Amino acid sequence: MRDVLVVYRRNDPPRVVGLIVEVPGKRRVFLSIGRVTSIGGGQIITTGLINLRRFEQRGGEVRVIAEMLGRKVSFNDGSGVASIEDVSIEEREPGEWEVEQLFVRRPKGASPFSKGQSAYVTWREVSEIAASGEAQSAEQLIATYSELKPADLANTLLDLPVARRQEVAEELSDDRLADVLEEMPESDQVEILSGLGDDRAADVLDHMQPDDAADLIAQLPEERGEHLLELMEPEEAEDVRMLLSYGPDSAGGLMTTEPIIVSADATVAEGLALIRRHDLPPALGAAVCVTLPPYEAPTGRFLGVVHFQRMLRYPPHERLGTLIDQGLEPVGADTSAAEVSRILASYDLVSVPVIDEKHRLVGVVTIDDVLDYLLPDDWRSHPEDDDEVSKRATARAQLTTGSIPIPSNARRAADGTR
Predict the structure, then answer these.
(1) pTM of the prediction?
(2) How far apart are the C-alpha atoms of 352 and 251, rounded to whole Å?
(3) Closest by alpha carbon to 148, among 174, 122, 172?
(4) C-alpha–C-alpha distance, residues 140 and 137, integer Å
(5) End-to-end Cα separation, the chain, in angstroms
(6) Among residues 317, 313, 268, 312, which one has the least CA distance to residue 290?
(7) Which residues form the signal peptide (predicted)?
(8) Which of 70, 28, 86 is nearest to 53 (CA)?
(9) How far apart are CA 366 and CA 417, in angstroms?
């Protein structure tokens, strides 16, 4: 491990986004902090494979050792200035690390034998001093937007002039930009992604949900879409390719390929631990899927789902295979979007499992996938006129009665196919 990469925030300490690690051949690559399970004892434990693409620093990212050490800070109590000599990071919650303390040293005194006074301070006790000509505008720009939720940041970007919007997008970290793109209409997604280099665009797609990445790639020219798939992480690209093989109006075209999958012998305690993951969307955490091995989509034979509320009613040692919801039937990958919508509405579900012709689990369709599909393209503009309210009431009535029209919306590719 050679360095730590952080991004600044307006009111909070800098957030750690990843580590810069060196692999054989003196190549430095990026390791997302979300893959790190523990740091200590002279070693770092991670999950998954490391992308060996050479590390490139993004706008707004700061390397702790290469850039932060040596910077000048002033004490907020007015007691003087100091320089940063060391930095500590701390895990606030699973997968969320931030700068906690600084080890600083004040300037030497008048005596040549004075070494200067050192101290440990928290980030909130000091403020950085921007030296003349020091380029920190990117950091401060990102810090301005750090507290906005992805949906709010997406709306903020859409209000900016096109050139400024692209500038801000290029300064955002990969995971942050991925979250923002998922909240935008696909036409704007395509515009922003087209302004990025191929390597950067592939990194951003890696961080997007597979179904959102598939929808975006489907809107790109075929040649560039295929090129980006080749640059993506093999595991992520495989999921996206599978989604692209299904029709846009089908359950396979709407589903996500990353549900929680467990064996029948897994316990309630294990199931609850899995749905506690901080990065798990709420709709996916509402139930776990039970299958035979292997436990990654496409899995072994699908056995059923266990809802989290039912897990809460049983002791931690209870096996999930005994708690399967026998009344919930999965849908086929070629089931129409209208039928999936009726199932979710009829049985008050937030997700429904999707199987292939061999009864293997290939993914789940969540309620947000269906809503995003059914709502009109301009739903993000939040119109408030009476006509629109009437349209919403009509759509709601159609949803409950089962007579749901399938609109031509952003989920479809321009030519109506994937």
Answers:
(1) 0.60
(2) 9
(3) 172
(4) 5
(5) 41
(6) 268
(7) none
(8) 28
(9) 22
